[in-house]
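Weekly puzzle thread! Below is a chain. First person to post its structure in token form gets bragging rights.
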Amino acid sequence: MTARRTTSPRHEVPSGDGLPPTAWAVLGLLSFPGERTGYELKKWADASLRFFYWSPAISQIYAELRRLEALGYASSRRSGPEEPRAKRSYAITDEGRTALAAWAGGAADAGPPVLKHPLLLRVWLGHLADPGQLRALVGEHIARTRGDLKEARDALARAEGTEEWSHPHIALRWSVRRLESEVELAEAMLTDLDAAGPPPGTDPSAAGQPVGDSPTPG
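Winning reply:
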């Protein structure tokens, strides 16, 4: 018996104008040929989205899939009895592709990139940290980034020559350049830490902060 594909009744579908970017990202993963399970979408996100946006948790992917299906932007199909384990596969609908194309090609400003760099927050507070430990954290960051760089290069190689992936290829190429720059910046930061020397005093909490010491006005 063929598994039946399901979609929500159209009269129950709310507007998708207020969808968060992550929902569009999940729908974007479905816009490439074929249908995929939530687990497969997670693997795709880990091999592409995480290098330039982020990779949602598997629970968030399923939450977005339910939302997209309620909107009529995605449909799902449960595997038949011939499968050893039942699984649900998702595909984009014509309505979903139209909405995604309108969002992707819209004239609205995409907004500025958001940078949250936990290591830099530690360096910013370096006057309270052990210099050796701070250098070790930067070294670990460099090693981890080099690992990400290898994975991004591997993903770029897999996308090479696939016509449907020409634009993901551009995004991955940018990601490789960004990771290369991140390694260079982190290595330069090690040099800066050496030049800064140890924090003044042995008890930073007792040193106080001189008046007017803030690096910003006000």
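Puzzle host: Confirmed. Bonus trivia for everyone else. The helical segments are 21-30, 38-46, 58-71, 94-104, 118-124, 131-159, 166-196, 204-207.
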